[in-house]
């Protein structure tokens, strides 16, 4: 039986919400950090693997808004920051019919999985990248909801076999309920880093693995700049009708 526990993660949701917020055209200097409007993601305690170069591509369906998107997640190079072991992780979200936004995060590496974000870089489609201000991170961490732990139902875990183009992998299918009694289903596999997640279904969203592999490289193009300088430049370009930036 599966000994790990499912979690509804506020961490990844916070990072995605932060990226959307920072690139919103209605952002202003006196804005407050928003509440996340995105469906929370399912992770499985103990299955996250810090493998440099690992990547996975997911299809996500927000059932509340009936919106679809793809998510490319990767773990890249390790770096120590102020004595804290950390690893760079990237999440590239491409909503259906819209441009991609890449969020690059220097994440504290802990025995239990990703810790707090130490630095965040965002690059909207077609624009230059920028570094998210520390004040945003602190405010976001303060307002972010804690992950909700969900215990699998007794006897629900079943071992299954996944067939890939190269080999067969053992995976575990498990069912659970959240605190409101809504069903949560997941298929996990320790051989598919970083998330170890094959499929997840909640009341609000579905998340399905499309492909995975090794040798991931950063999707950030160009040198990140100060956010407020970046914002000033975007406003100036908007007024002049000039090109947005060098990002692709």
Automatic annotation (TrEMBL):
Task: Write the record's keywords in alphabetical order, separated by commas.
Answer: Signal
Q: Does the keyword Signal apply?
A: yes
Origin: domain of life: Bacteria
Signal peptide residue numbers: 1-28
Instruction: Please state what the protein is called.
Output: DUF3108 domain-containing protein
This protein's species is: Dethiosulfatarculus sandiegensis
